[in-house]
Every structure is written in C-alpha cells, then in structure tokens.
Amino acid sequence: MEKVLVLGSINIDFVSFVSRYPQPGETLISNDFGIFQGGKGANQAIALAKLDVPTLMLGKVGKDILSDFALSSLQESGVDITGISKSQKSSTGSASIWVNAQGQNSIVIYPGANGEVDENFIIQHEKFFDDASWLLTQFEIPLKSILLALKFAKKHGLKTLMDPAPVKKINNDDIWGFIDYLLPNEIELKELTNTDNVLKAIRILKSLGVKEVIVKLGKQGAGYEDKGNFNLFPAVPVEQVVDTTGAGDCFIAGFLYGMIQWGDIPRAIKIANLTASYSIQKKGAAISFPNKSEIDWKKLE
Hints:
four-stranded mixed beta sheet, UDP-N-acetylmuramoyl-L-alanine:D-glutamate ligase, alpha/beta, 30% helix
C-alpha cells in the first residue's frame, strides 16, 4: 500500500469532562479527566496506522517525560517514528481541553517543540519524501515549513492533502497551488474565503490552485463540488456522541485511506464519515480511533 508522510504537531492532551463550560472567574468540578495522545499531526498518523496504512511521522517532541508518552503511543499504533526528533530547549506540545455534556470541545494549545519544526528540519528530512506517495499536513507547525514541505512533495511526485486547522490567515497564496486535497470544516472554509456560501468558497479556493476541496460539516456529514453542485454525504448516525475531540483527524485519515484504496472521492468521503463515527463514541482523540478490523464495512453498502 502507498506510504503516507505525516508532517505536523505532536501534543499531549489534558482533557476535563464537564457538564458545561465555566464562566470567567468560576471554578467547576469535572466529571472525569484523562491524559491522551494528541496533536493533529500525531492524531492523523495514528488514525492512518490503525487503518493499516504505512505511515511515517515527521515532527518534534520535547526532552521532558511527556515525550516518552508521545513516542510510545505513536509506535504502539504502528507509526514509524524515525522522522521525529527531540528538542533540546522546548517541552513537548500540550493541549488543555474541556469537553461538555454534548460532547463538544474547547481547546487551548501550547505549541512547545512543534514550533521548532522549521525549514532546516524539513531540509534535514527530505530523504523521507523519496519512498512516500502522499504528504499530509496541518497548520499546527510554522507556515514556512509547510510550504517548503509541499514544494518537496511535488518535487518528489507525492500527492498532497492539507487540513487547514487551526485556521489562520494565509498571506502567501503560493501555498494553494501545491495542495491536491484541502479538507476544511465549515468555519475554516469561511475564514479562508470570507464567504458563508460553501459552493462560492470552494470555487475561490480552486481558483487559487487547490485541486479538490472536501468540506467537513460535523453532524451533517461532508461533501464536495462536482459539476457545479455540492454533493453532500450524510454522517453515519450513532446512538450517543461522547467526545468529538479528534473526530476531524479521524475523518481525514479515513478519507486518505479511501483515496489510496479506490481513488474515488465519493467513496473516500463515505469511508471518512464511517471511520469518524467510531471516534465520537469514545473519550479522547487518538485512543478513540478504530482499528480497521473494528469497522463494520457493510455500512458502506
């Protein structure tokens, strides 16, 4: 199977489960608490590896005790960690997360060592682009590094997939022409294009050079533009939403798995919806992602 390079963040998530979000100055007692593997890059790498996709992670951790947790959880999930290095000055990235009774989350991220994934890091790891077929990345590392990695990907003949999260204003439009598949959610799509109209937003991004835009719409599902129309694929219904943390990362891994296996966008979106439906029924991000063998693939029929 085609190999994926995942360039991105590696965090440890500190998650509090609360009935509601606290008001400023208010102290709440949480119902539960967990420490989980996180970071969009690491999450997506783990989700891919659990789907039996050969996956190599490019990123940085700190020299603290959290780095051991991060590296072991990636390795145990089947991710190749030879592209991960340890910072000598920063701690491992972390995220403080509140999850409310409806399973919605609010997140505060400390970048830590992720901020050191600079252009020199990309240059030092160019050799890993040689035997890969895909590059998957996000916006949790420096933008200059992402642009250089996308250029390397095209130089080495890789297909590229971008998760534009956390969303930020892009001052260099050159980046869009290197992206084959962009997977924003509705909020990110609006931020990137300054329009509420999904079809108009997709056309704006395509006019800038993006090949395909797949829009994640949460409980509504996901869709893309085909022949001037927006094709929506409904989300897979579940009995109870427990925690949506990492669901978008799981969706992206499912979509990429579908593209590797079938090269068909509608089928890949359906697989992504199905894969993500397992994630939202458990607590945590990476720990909630399904193994390929756990998925009821008959639901695609």
